[in-house]
Amino acid sequence: MEIQSCVTILNEWDIVAARQLGRNVAKELGFGTVDQARITTAISELARNIYLYAGQGQLCIDRLNEQGKTGLRIIAIDEGPGIPDIRKVMEDGFSTSGGLGAGLPGVRRLMDDFNIDSNPGEGTDIRATKWLR
Amino acid sequence: MDFREKMDEKFIGVLTDFMQSQSEESLYAAQQFSRLALEHKIPPEEIVNLQKSAMQELMPDLPPEVWHSFDILLEVMTAYGFAFREYQSLIDTQKEFKNEMEIASSVQETLLGTSVPTIDGLEIGALSVPAKQMNGDYFHFVHDGDHSVNVAIADVIGKGIPAALCMSMIKYAMDSLPEYRKDPSAVLGSLNRVVEQNVDDSMFITMFYGMYELKNHMLHFSSAGHEPGFFYSKQLDEFLDLEARGLLLGVDKDTTYKRYEQQVEIGDMIILMSDGVTECRTDEGFIERETLVSFINNYIDLPPQEIVNKIFRDLEKLQHFQLRDDFTLIIMKRVK
After folding, report:
1. Phi, psi (5° rounding) for residue B94?
2. A35: which chain B residues are within 8 Å (Cβ-Cβ)?
3. What confidence tens digit (pLDDT) does each residue in A78-100 have?
4. Hey, which residues does A3 pair with through a beta bridge?
């Protein structure tokens, strides 16, 4: 069962909208305040990457219900320049946006599952899930 | 994860205690709590949450603005938590690097290993200590039956891993030139071509190569820009520079190396070193070659290996136990 809602990221205000969407869903699903803050931080980071590097894209929030487990999935999709060396951006210390500094590896650590697909010239698709405990 | 389960309870205990007493003792308890929390890698946003939950339990009637203020703190601390996790992960990576370096350094020791030969009538002492884990200095002995003992000492300009990798190449280049071994000028000539062809332009190697003939006690030697050694003449009771001219390895592929000779009498010593010995920097600047001579003079009647060990200890102390460059010292003494 999946119910998805999306925000188009074009400017910095859309980052706020994406955060708001994520927070509402997280609250609704029953995530505590600490996890809410983590989820919105992850959303901020992913939305900011779209805004800074791809120019535009979509940030969607999925409500997941798999085998009795409830979860929230962030999907960040853009058709920007893509990432030529994914291993490099997944390394610590390779600062991306200069925002929070920890970039994608930081997002991976805040969430439970993390998946990234990217092809130069085609864009990037990042999915990160947090499960309710 | 025992701590995690009891964390709320513990925190509320510390907090209540402090609210009542405001004592240093309960602050100390808070410090101990934070040590445990760090040990269990509890990120800062969780601590903010502990505070908020504890306050909700202890003082539920606070105005709503107070609770909102916690949410701001939580948001801000989540970003610090982001950094905290990165720091944890970098620490782990650093541990991995350190382990790898230790393995690399023991592989290097095996690769570059040489044994100091035992020769009737010629006592030899040698010591090489890297400043970091990998050694950019190198020495090597070849004992050629009754004919001669050959000694090589080399220093890559630079230190650490690049220098160490470079040294391994030199060692194998030397091993593959057995027919030239006897003539120092030919050995350096061949190695120069190897280095010139295979090593990055920014890296240079200095090397001293000596062949000590056991029958007539004549030392033949050549140098490729290496720190000059000393020759101690027992008869004159004087230390003379073992001067030899020659270009660093790897600069010009057509360079040639002149061969020099030194007659060695009973009691005389040949002292070879890397610039980590003479460029040992102390509070008063680099030590002078004369200072080194005076150190050697202090121990002149001891066996060479002991002299070498004691000098290393003295220089280590002078530098407050922080080596800035790799240290290699070799002393050969004719005793009969």
Report:
1. -65, -40
2. none
3. 999 988 888 888 887 665 444 43
4. A63
- Continuous segment of H or E residues that includes residue A133: none
Fold exhibited by the domain B112-334: Phosphatase 2c; domain 1 (3.60.40)
Mean pLDDT throughout A48-77? 94
If you search the block for the tokens 């309710």, which residue do you land on?
A: A132
Residues 42-71 of A with CB under 8 A from B: none
Contact (CB<8Å) B74/A93: no
CB contact under 8 A, B82 and A32: no
CA-nearest residue to A106 within chain B is B82
**Test the B interface: residue of A19, A43, A92 with most B CBs within 10 Å:** A92
Q: What is the CATH number of domain B2-104?
A: 1.10.1240.30
Q: Which CA distances in Å does B300 have to B170, B228, B303?
A: 33, 19, 8
Residue from the list B49, B78, B90 with its beta carbon closest to the beta carbon of A93: B90
Q: What pLDDT was estimated at residue A98? A: 45
Tell me what pLDDT residue B206 has. Answer: 92
* CATH fold for domain A2-131: Heat Shock Protein 90 (3.30.565)
Using the Cβ of A99 and the Cβ atoms of chain B, whether some distance falls under 8 Å is answered with no
What's residue B280's pLDDT?
60
Domain spans in chain B, listed from the N-terminal domain onward: 2-104, 112-334
Q: How far is A65 from chain B (nearest CA, A)?
A: 26
CA distance B85 to chain A (A): 7
The more confident residue out of A62 and B202 is A62
Beta-bridged to residue B238, according to DSSP, are B233
How much is the ipTM here? 0.80
**What are the extents of the domains in chain A?**
2-131
- Cα atoms in the Cβ-side hemisphere of radius 13 Å centred on A96: 26
Separation between Cα atoms, residue B48 and residue B41, nearest integer Å: 14
Q: Which residues of B touch A95 (CB under 8 A)?
A: none
Residue A17's CB is within 10 A of a number of other CB atoms, namely 14
Is the confidence at residue A110, as pLDDT, over 50? Answer: yes
Q: Which residues share a beta bridge with A75? A: A60, A127
Mean pLDDT per 10-residue segment, chain B (336 residues): 87 95 94 94 94 94 95 94 89 91 85 86 91 83 86 82 81 75 86 85 87 93 93 92 91 92 94 79 66 86 93 83 82 92
